[in-house]
Design goal:
With about 200 residues, the chain is an all-alpha fold. The chain has helices at about 5-30, 30-40, 45-50, 65-80, 85-115, 120-155, 160-195.
């Protein structure tokens, strides 16, 4: 059976989605480290320079901290000095990362049905509905972080952050995915009825 151009594109997209899924899960694992570095207030370029710098000659600049020790101090500093900020940032990054991984997994399932030549499979409607739920999860996590920021600093600064933009963006994305889920469910029902009449 000859593969259609849509199926060839779906195969490429499925590989890319799988790669993004794996890299996203790895990034979720590093979210506490990234939050700790940010919470410690160490600029990332300065930290990277210190991690890649050559050790000093013996006798100079004692004590010498290895790159792993500097990374440990950055994370420990973030957890001790600004614990609540680092904790909220870690929870937000982990929740958003897991929801994004869930959306990618559902997209991979939809692409699997497209590769099988069944774009209007009933499972696609369920996958799109689940992806909408993950979008709503990111929106809720973003809203929680913005509300926490408003109460913790008692200023309007969190409303001007990128996190505040995630709330309406992922809310609209979730609503669009719910709409697409309903359309795919209706198309699957029509296809089933047409198959029965023939």
């Amino acid at each position: 059976m000859e593969k259609k151009p849509v199926q060839a594109a779906a195969r490429t997209l499925r590989v890319l989605v799988t790669l993004a899924f794996v890299l996203g899960l790895l990034a979720v694992g590093f979210s506490p480290v990234l939050a700790g570095i940010h919470g410690a207030g160490i600029p990332l370029p300065e930290l990277m320079d210190s991690l890649t710098a050559a050790p000093p000659p013996p006798g100079e600049d004692w004590p010498y901290f290895s790159p792993s020790m500097l990374l440990f101090f950055a994370v420990a500093g973030g957890w001790t000095e600004r614990f609540s900020y680092t904790l909220v940032l870690t929870l937000f990054l982990a929740a958003a990362g897991l929801c994004a991984a869930g959306m990618l997994w559902q997209g991979r399932r939809v692409l699997g049905h497209v590769l099988a030549g069944e774009p209007f499979h009933p499972g696609n409607a369920r996958s799109l509905r689940r992806a909408a739920g993950f979008c709503f999860g990111i929106s809720a996590a973003s809203l929680s972080r913005v509300v926490w920021g408003l109460f913790s600093c008692a200023c309007a600064q969190p409303l001007r952050s990128y996190t505040a933009l995630f709330v309406p963006a992922f809310l609209m994305g979730g609503l669009l995915l719910r709409l697409m889920s309903a359309l795919f469910r209706q198309a699957a029902q029509l296809k089933a009825e047409n198959d029965l009449t023939i």
